[in-house]
Amino acid sequence: MSESVDSWTKTLNFNVGVLGHVDSGKTSLARSLSSTASTAAFDKNPQSRERGITLDLGFSSFTVELPDHLRDSEGQKQYDNLQFTLVDCPGHASLIRTIIGGAQIIDLMMLVVDVVKGVQTQTAECLLIGELTCPRMVVVLNKIDLLPPNKRQSAIEKMTKRLHKTLENTRFKECPVIAVAAKPGGPEAPDTEEPQAVPELIELLKKQTYLPQRDPKGDLLMAVDHCFSIRGQGTVMTGTILQGSLAINDTVEIPALKVTKKIKSVQMFRRPVSGAMQGDRVGVCVTQFDPKLLERGVVCTPGSLCTLYAALISVRKIGYFKGSLSTRAKFHITVGHETVMARVTFFGLPPLGASEPPSVTNQPPSKPCPLDTPFTFEREYFHQDEYVIAQGEASPGCDPEQWALLEFERPVTCPLLCLVIGSKLDTDIHANACRLAFQGRLLQGFKDKGYAESALPRLRIYKTKHKEGQLERVTDDYTVIGRNLFKKETNLQLFIGLKVTLSTGETGVIEGGFGQSGKFKIRVQEGLSPETKQLLSSTSKKKGKGGSKGGAANEEEPKTDSQPVSIHLHFKRYVFDPHKKMVQS
């Protein structure tokens, strides 16, 4: 037993995501590449078997000798061989949430494109998910057997050129493109037909490998994609370790169910091992657990994950998304391995010129993520009705720094700083439009169900308000009466002491109400200027008793009509302040 453990630990596991549009031949390609199929592999779902379409993340693997460039990187041989774990992600638009779940554990992306159809909607979406989650990519042009032999080479070259053009503005520009036929004759053809160019693809994959960052330290986080029972043994959870490590006899938590279990045994592709670490694909056996309770989800070190009712994220719009990103709108939020609806509130740094600590910069960051300005509860932020896009010459990805509050419809369990993707998955799946709307990182989570009362008041997001009224008359040199600033039913007590500005330049303070109709009294500390008094005396004359002074008042009338004195009240209000206080700088 110990021998097999030792020999097995010398295998480097490298996760390759197989993504692409529905029917591009991803599963056939994975099947032709694989030697050992893992439990979740090749569509256990009956609906999928009937339609020949992958509905869940399939996993399978094949092992090759360790390439030389991996041996030399440390000057010594760390591993004996290289295992490719193929993560076959579904291509249906409606199952984009499954893809995002799979993409978080991928070291290399294999984008499968139907050579006849080229790039389709979901191919583009897969490309976007790859950009957000994966450092390298190989493009596989599949189904070359469908091209007439005499035109095959020119068609492949033409499609390769088109793909390089599509990729030139992404992180995958100049990535390798290879043409294959994973299942000549299509899914129904007998298996006697040999796949074309698959050995060349394996050599290309070997060239593209690197030593992924694998760290056994820190809390365990394992993404579980399948759960089943074995009589007399217990329940096996298969999945990929996203961070940390595990070993036999460790206690792990299933946070969604709030239960802890002890690990009885561990397997990697049907071989027993004593433990496993980040990046490994494992089966973990526990006892007295009903597999029906957990088909997909996460397993972790007890107490290390939080269940959140709301969260604060950094946010970047995805350039291909055509809709607007509005505050109060609902989006499908994929976070950790869950997708849940959430209401979104966007906010950013205060506009230039607003009173702010000098350390705040309003320059758009040069790179989309991570953000240059860390989020902090000490800072003030400006409420936005929608996400703000860079204006003018600024290149895509240089939008001003922004954040969002997500309020989930049901609680989600996830690690902090994990990737967050917002989508509009209710868009018509046949519409040729990108449904991925924004991406970001989870910065702060609210674990309290009553977060709106307990936590949100700490969040200093404000709106600026401006009210305008008219000056009605002068009482004396230091007191005027105003109107039309408030409704009759407004509680004027809230506004006492606030500063106002007259259109003639003076500033004053609201002293209180005047009568019952919403009028109010303003104290002008410096006193009214002679010009203002002149202007206002003509107004009051006009409103006098008529008679002999009527003529004089009428002479002044055009002047007062063209220049009524207005009153301006500017203040800000914090969106989450329970007392709805008005603040003036």
Automatic annotation (TrEMBL):
Location of region: Disordered: 531-566
Any Pfam family the entry gives: eEFSec_4th
GO MF annotations, alphabetized: GTP binding; GTPase activity; translation elongation factor activity
CDD domains, sorted: eSelB_III, SelB_euk, SelB_II
GO terms of biological process kind: selenocysteine incorporation
Reaction(s) catalysed (UniProt annotation): GTP + H2O = GDP + phosphate + H(+)
Keyword Nucleus tagged: yes
Coiled coil: none
Subcellular location: Cytoplasm; Nucleus
UniProt keyword list: Cytoplasm, GTP-binding, Hydrolase, Methylation, Nucleotide-binding, Nucleus, Phosphoprotein, Protein biosynthesis
Chief site of localization: cytoplasm
Record domain Tr-type G: where: 11-217
Annotated InterPro entries: eEFSec_C, eEFSec_III, EF-Tu_GTPase, EFTu-like_2, P-loop_NTPase, Small_GTP-bd, T_Tr_GTP-bd_dom, Transl_B-barrel_sf
NCBIfam families: small_GTP
Function: Translation factor required for the incorporation of the rare amino acid selenocysteine encoded by UGA codons. Replaces the eRF1-eRF3-GTP ternary complex for the insertion of selenocysteine directed by the UGA codon. Insertion of selenocysteine at UGA codons is mediated by SECISBP2 and EEFSEC: SECISBP2 (1) specifically binds the SECIS sequence once the 80S ribosome encounters an in-frame UGA codon and (2) contacts the RPS27A/eS31 of the 40S ribosome before ribosome stalling.
Protein name: Selenocysteine-specific elongation factor
Organism: Champsocephalus gunnari
Organism lineage: Eukaryota, Metazoa, Chordata, Craniata, Vertebrata
